[in-house]
Amino acid sequence: MKNIEITESIFEHFETFIPLSENLKSELEKRLKHIVFKKGETVLNANQICTESYFINKGILRTYFLKDGKEISEYFCGIDEWVNSPKSFMQRKKDIYYIDAIENTEAYLINVNDLVYLFDNFPEMERYARLSMGSVFGHLMERITSMRFTSAKERYNHFQKTYSAIYHRIPLGMVASYLGITQETLSRIRAEK
Amino acid sequence: MKNIEITESIFEHFETFIPLSENLKSELEKRLKHIVFKKGETVLNANQICTESYFINKGILRTYFLKDGKEISEYFCGIDEWVNSPKSFMQRKKDIYYIDAIENTEAYLINVNDLVYLFDNFPEMERYARLSMGSVFGHLMERITSMRFTSAKERYNHFQKTYSAIYHRIPLGMVASYLGITQETLSRIRAEK
DNA sequence: CACAACTTTTGACCTATATCAAATAATCAT
DNA sequence: ATGATTATTTGATATAGGTCAAAAGTTGTG
To answer: How many CB pairs under 8 A join A and B?
Structure first.
């Protein structure tokens, strides 16, 4: 059955960081809910507190914020990744980030209260969170580096590597704002060679 | 006695995230070692694995890497902050980062093996790590934003806010590379108004 | 305290990328 | 399909910040 397959893929993800007991598996299973978003659909509005985190099974979600009325893409998430508005989710307060669906997307969600329950009762979940954050941490550092001493073209190349599985499915304008360059510049970079 | 005072300041730091049992306190006390670095001294070389994390009590440490033979400052750490080479420390492998002392610095260090021992035996330490990483996470995201759609001057202002306690003690050249601009540009920004 | 070795400032000039404007091209809804 | 939106490309021009070079200022050490 399909739900089972999908849950399996989350379990596999967890197991790259921690061993999962049968008990924890069943507690997770109880709390993970399947959800579908249509292309273009808003997942989170900036005026809301983010109370859910989404583990993507299919499609792409994007986090962005508004600057001078324009959407600035913060990051993109594809299969086997978690998306939320980090500060909002962990500190239960509003933040500037919106989340929307770039493609028709399927995901599993967990509510923040359920996650806290798991943290309180399964120390290995704390470890999972620490370790998985660690790997995202590395990406953020790389991105900061890439943002400083590299040309627009090098940044685009770096982006293609980082998002090799999905970069070609993301509209140009969104990529440009993610990279901190204008659409026009990105269009010219793509036109070269 | 001085050592006790300093240890207290680390404990206070931990207690902003988790309650500390007497047992955990004494286990920490056994493992934290006091260390002193002279201005300019190298704390970590890029060709080494980073096996220690430093909690600063006085002074400033800097993390940097080399690009085209030039030092690019990655971040600065002052009082009550942890410094290490993140990937190297957590994954026990070499990375590109050096650490050095910008001022005469005093710190407490913990060895990675001791930290792992604490993670294994005190689940609240896992929680501490998760929560404290969370706050650094927020700073990294802000920095990425600041790096994209803001002018050199705005970035410098943002830097002054982020590092309000120590920004004036960091040499201009190091600040410039941290911000991703040249020394000359930063010098001109400072000269204005 | 004086010289060497850095660090910061100043000036002249150049280049990557932004801006503004308009023409195509692609996508969507009826 | 067909016109309306929305996204992308192309062109002309402007500018923030880079590069190179040299002067001035600061710091440390015998």
So the answer is: 76
